[in-house]
Structure formats: structure tokens, C-alpha cells
Recover the amino acids of this structure.
């Protein structure tokens, strides 16, 4: 049987988020999520490190949001050295980074879904991860852009140094005095 998701090492890293090797039992939602992704039931929108997935399953639709962690600056520097003038990283670049003791794999920083499942890895989040893995398999530079928060791998170290923008506004950052003031 051919592997639909994760046939490159870059895509396999995304599949490992959905199917961690540390899991003691397989996720019962995974086959359904793979079916949804395989049948084009997921529409992905990538904006920096944020991935919004519109997941259609039967007569219902949900929105899953994924936030990919920023790549470490040491990995960015080594990645540029290994890639040289190439624009797309391949499995040999991944293997060379691993041989240096670096971890180029994408990591999930946060995930949520609009469904009622009340668990982080619902079928919609899993389907989004499988669809993302398929996209990364065909265009590995996509994952580099997501990990950098930029659209290309050339600007990969800017967010690693500055850090990602805050995901939420802390309540202490709001001005109590102006909270109920109406703007005209």
C-alpha cells in the first residue's frame, strides 16, 4: 500500500504530530481524518505560522486552527549552509541537519477547532495535519516558511530572533480607564 501522507521526511515530521510514536494506542479518529484529507475535504490557508483549515465532513463543516512553532536560530543557520543555492530542501538536507544533532521537524505550538469534540486532536485537527503533510510532501519549502513565520525560507531567521507575535492580549494590557469609553 502506498503512503499518501509523509512520503518525504519533511511531510513525515507533520504526520508524526498527528501520529506520535509515544502514543500507547492508535487514535481512533485517524482513519477518518486521513479519508477526509485524501478526498479533498480540507482547504488550507497559511498565514505565517498560523494555518487555518476549513474541514468539510458530510453535511457539517468545522474550522481548525494550527500554530506552528518557530524554528530555532541554530537550525536556520545550518539549514542555509546545507541548502546552498537550492530553493527546495530535500531529504538529504533533513538528514544532514539530523546528523549535526539539530531538530528541523515542525512542532505544533497550539491547535483548536470549532467543533464540539472538546479535545485537542479532534478529527478536524488531524485532517488538517494530514492535508498539511500532503502539501509539505509536494512543496517542502512550505514548512520552512511556516516555521519562520514568513512566506519564504530566505527570511527564516527573522522571527526566530524577534519571537512570534503574541497569540492573545493579556488582560493586564487593557486600560481600565478607557475600557467603557465609546468611540465616535
Amino acid at each position: 500500500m502506498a503512503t499518501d501522507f509523509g512520503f518525504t521526511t519533511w511531510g513525515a515530521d507533520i504526520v508524526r504530530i498527528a501520529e506520535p510514536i509515544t502514543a500507547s494506542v492508535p487514535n481512533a479518529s485517524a482513519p477518518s481524518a486521513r479519508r477526509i484529507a485524501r478526498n479533498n475535504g480540507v482547504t488550507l490557508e497559511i498565514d505565517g505560522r498560523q494555518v487555518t483549515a476549513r474541514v468539510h465532513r458530510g453535511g457539517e463543516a468545522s474550522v481548525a486552527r494550527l500554530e506552528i512553532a518557530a524554528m530555532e536560530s541554530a537550525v536556520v543557520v545550518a539549514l542555509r549552509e546545507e541548502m546552498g543555492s537550492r530553493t527546495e530542501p530535500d531529504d538529504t538536507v533533513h538528514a544532514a541537519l539530523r546528523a549535526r544533532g539539530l531538530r528541523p521537524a515542525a512542532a505544533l505550538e497550539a491547535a483548536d477547532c470549532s467543533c464540539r469534540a472538546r479535545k485537542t486532536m479532534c478529527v478536524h485537527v488531524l485532517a488538517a495535519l494530514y492535508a498539511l503533510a500532503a502539501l509539505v510532501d509536494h512543496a517542502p519549502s512550505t514548512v520552512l516558511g511556516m516555521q519562520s513565520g514568513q512566506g519564504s525560507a530566505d527570511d527564516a531567521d527573522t522571527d526566530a530572533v524577534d519571537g512570534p507575535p503574541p497569540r492573545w492580549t493579556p488582560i493586564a494590557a487593557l486600560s481600565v480607564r478607557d475600557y467603557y469609553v465609546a468611540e465616535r
Remarks:
- The radius of gyration is 18 Å.
